[in-house]
Specification:
By secondary structure, the chain is α+β, with helices and mostly antiparallel strands. The chain is 21% helix and 32% strand. It is built from 4 helices and 12 strands. Helix 3 packs parallel to helix 4. The protein is globular and about 50 Å long.
């Protein structure tokens, strides 16, 4: 299975629709997730630009002002979509593989940047894990670091790291390894700060 998680930072910026269209046209992508879309709604014309063959079922969570937003597309040649469900920080798609007839829960994440919302965020993740009835793949921008190694500068795990790790360990999730580097975010300054805020986790089943 091939999926794309991408924090695109404004899906409507110049050239973005062409990039997404080319990725979907040139690769066999089973699902695609764009985070931080900064977009409230989508027109049929937008989807005609990025999904010319109408291969994907699309669903989204609108942005709040100029922040947030998730757009998820599921390849209908690979999966039947049973249903989508929305949270404050997540968009879940329950799908069934057409070939193997097995269900899968795909969870797209865009976590809060500010600490005051992180406990609510982790509670939402815990509820998703607790209620699931099939194998799960969860990925996106969590905006929480787990370990001191998730940053290239001194960092001591805090209570949100502890809660996040508790959730991952309690529900026996496994982080997939990164390829191409140890970090997923940079402040793009001289002597840059680098952090791993994005991750993909899967259930053991």
């Amino acid at each position: 299975m091939i999926g794309l998680f991408w924090n695109c930072r404004w899906v409507s910026k110049k050239g973005m629709s062409v990039i997404v269209k080319d990725i979907l046209a040139d690769n066999v992508v089973d699902f695609v997730v764009l985070q931080e879309t900064m977009k409230k709604t989508y027109s049929d014309a937008f989807f005609r630009k990025i999904d010319t063959s109408k291969k994907y079922a699309w669903h989204w969570i609108p942005s709040e002002g100029k922040s947030g937003g998730i757009l998820c597309g599921v390849n209908l040649e690979k999966f039947d979509v049973i249903h989508f469900s929305e949270g404050n920080f997540s968009l879940s798609a329950t799908v069934q593989c057409k070939k193997e007839k097995k269900k899968l829960l795909l969870v797209s994440i865009y976590g809060p940047a500010h600490d005051e919302n992180k406990e609510e965020f982790i509670t939402e993740l815990s509820q998703i894990c607790h209620k699931r009835s099939c194998p799960m793949l969860m990925g996106g921008d969590f905006n929480i670091m787990r370990y001191s190694s998730d940053k290239n500068k001194p960092f001591s795990p805090n209570k949100y790291s502890d809660l996040f790790n508790w959730m991952i360990n309690t529900y026996e999730l496994r982080d997939l390894n990164l390829n191409g580097g140890n970090y997923t975010w940079s402040n793009n300054q001289d002597f840059s700060t680098l952090e791993r805020l994005d991750r993909i986790s899967m259930s053991e089943d």
